Amino acid sequence: MCAGEMVTCPRVGRYGALVPDGLELYGFPAPGQVPQLRWLGPDYVAVLLRDLSRGLRRQDAGTVVMGVHCEGTPMFKVSTDGIGMIRAHDAGFTLQVFIKDGTGRPWRLRGRWTYVGRDLGTAGASVTHYWELFSADGV
User: Fold this and answer.
1) I want to staple 88 with a disulfide (CB 3.0 to 4.6 A). Which of 59, 74, 79, 82 is the partner?
2) How far apart are CA 97 and CA 52, in angstroms?
3) In sequence order, what are the beta bridge partners of 108?
4) Residue 92 and residue 12: Cα distance in Å, rounded?
5) What is the rounded CA–CA span in Å between residue 96 and residue 119?
């Protein structure tokens, strides 16, 4: 893999899951099938769900996430330093997120959730994330 090269992980190992609070997750590659995401921890889907839910509740404290569908293969962008060590890693997920807002109205949000890792493997390492909204439809 070359610095800055965009690659996609294979569509094998996809799984659907019903987590304990009734939230439906589907379309995500199983964590073992995407070793490129180890830098996010052993269960990247749980991390994504936690971060996404917190972000939505910051905008509307009454938001309830009902389901998340990963629409395609995650996109990866990797950059290396002068000796070939990975120091920057982006991972983007095209998602449909099904929510109820604070008034109980259901919505389908379509967008891309991206994790951005910088200075990985150093004392100054950081991981941030952002949401790019493509559409929001009342359902």
Assistant:
1) 79
2) 9
3) 98, 137
4) 18
5) 30
* Lookup result for tokens 């604070």: 102
Contact criterion met (CB below 8 Å) for 1 and 7? yes
Give the residue from 110, 115, 108, 106 showing the smallest Cα distance to 137.
108
Radius of gyration of the chain (CA): 16
Report field, pTM of the whole predicted structure over 0.90? no
**Residues 9-34 pLDDT 10s:** 333 234 444 454 678 888 999 888 88
* Paired tokens of 99: 């929510």
Partnered with residue 80 across adjacent β-strands are: 86
Question: Residue 115: what residue type?
Answer: Y
Quote the CA–CA distance of 110 and 131 in Å, as a whole number.
10
Q: In this structure, what is the dihedral angle of CA atoms 135, 131, 84, 2, given to the nearest 10 degrees?
A: 0
